[in-house]
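2024-03-11 09:14:02 INFO worker-7 job=invfold-0412 stage=load source=structure_tokens
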């Protein structure tokens, strides 16, 4: 084989080799190229993450139905005062219930007066005074709270005033004695069930953290 033909074959081989190398590095492109598809499940995982990130506030939905009027009111309270937490409020309400209830039953109103609205205090005071005039004395001990649920919530945007109603089912021992010391109501050692719906009020976004009892009922 003569030299010119040999050189031509060598050059052709080099050209073919270079073309194959370029195809392996750059890939091919034949007309329309489909868009890249992410790994299977990536979009689904991202959607799930977005739902979790912007989902319901469990501090609210743990206590009231999602989308209810109470849930919306609690959300607006949080907007006005970001540090407010429903769970923390309910823990405080539990302690307030025992303190106020026992203060009323024992006639020790001075200690609980700062936590009562004026009209609530007046009603409590009238009941205590009527008992004293009849010579009656209440002996009561708090046993515990069997049930406590958030009953209702309302928020007044103009004033920033929040109202939260809580249903309590408490248990206590309770007897009433007359001047002679005889039991006229209740039975010693017997546990009495006390059912109440109390409404607490507070202006959100202010420095005073205390909630005030503004209404009682059953």
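2024-03-11 09:14:09 INFO worker-7 stage=emit residues=218
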């Amino acid at each position: 084989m003569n030299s010119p033909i040999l050189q031509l074959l060598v050059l052709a081989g080099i050209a073919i080799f270079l073309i194959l190398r370029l195809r392996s590095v750059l890939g091919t492109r034949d007309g329309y190229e489909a868009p890249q598809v992410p790994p299977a499940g990536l979009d689904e995982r991202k959607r799930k993450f977005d739902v979790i990130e912007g989902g319901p506030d469990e501090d609210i939905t743990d206590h009231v139905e999602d989308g209810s009027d109470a849930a919306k009111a609690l959300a607006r309270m949080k907007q006005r005062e970001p540090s407010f937490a429903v769970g923390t409020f309910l823990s405080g309400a539990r302690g307030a219930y025992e303190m106020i209830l026992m203060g009323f039953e024992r006639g020790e109103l001075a200690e609980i007066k700062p936590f009562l609205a004026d009209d609530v205090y007046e009603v409590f005071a009238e009941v205590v005074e009527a008992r004293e005039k009849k010579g009656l004395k209440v002996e009561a001990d708090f046993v515990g709270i069997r049930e406590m649920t958030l009953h209702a919530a309302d928020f007044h945007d103009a004033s920033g005033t929040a109202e939260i109603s809580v249903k309590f089912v408490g248990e206590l021992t309770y007897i009433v004695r007359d001047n002679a010391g005889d039991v006229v109501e209740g039975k010693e050692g017997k546990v009495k069930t006390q059912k109440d719906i109390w409404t607490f009020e507070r202006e959100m976004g202010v420095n005073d953290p205390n909630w005030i009892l503004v209404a009682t009922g059953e």
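2024-03-11 09:14:09 INFO worker-7 stage=report msg="Helices lie at 3-26, 42-53, 58-61, 69-80, 86-105, 118-133."
2024-03-11 09:14:10 INFO worker-7 job finished
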